[in-house]
Amino acid sequence: MQSVGERKVASSWEAIECMQQWPDRARGRSWRAAYRACRDALDGWRTAREARTAFVKAARTAGLLVTGRKST
């Protein structure tokens, strides 16, 4: 996979698109749980907060999470 740099994810749909680009080594149990949580949020079965929490956990587990917010 080619590196794409930092990416801002602002919705469950964007999280799904982002996760589809993760390397195979990052697609473990937490990736599957996050993917399912985001899909469920889109379908109204889970909240956006639950999807975000699962996505952040998966990104952290995979070593892909960039923390800190840039001031604007």
Short description:
With 72 residues, the protein is mainly alpha-helical. The chain has 3 helices and no strands.
Topology:
Blueprint: H1 12-19, H2 29-42, H3 48-62
Helix pairs in contact: 1-2, 2-3
Describe this protein's structure.
The protein is mainly alpha-helical and 72 residues long. It has one domain. The chain contains 3 helices and no strands. It has helices at residues 12-19, 29-42, 48-62.
Oligomer: single chain
* Structural class based on helices, strands and sheet pairing: mainly alpha
Helix content estimate: 40-55%
- Contiguous helical run count: 3
Order of helices and strands: HHH
- The total number of structural domains is 1
- Shape descriptor reads globular
Distance linking N and C termini:
31 Å
Counting DSSP E segments of at least 2 residues, the number of strands comes to 0
Rg over alpha carbons: 12 Å
Unreliable sequence segments: none
What would the average pLDDT be, to the nearest integer? Answer: 89
Largest sheet: none
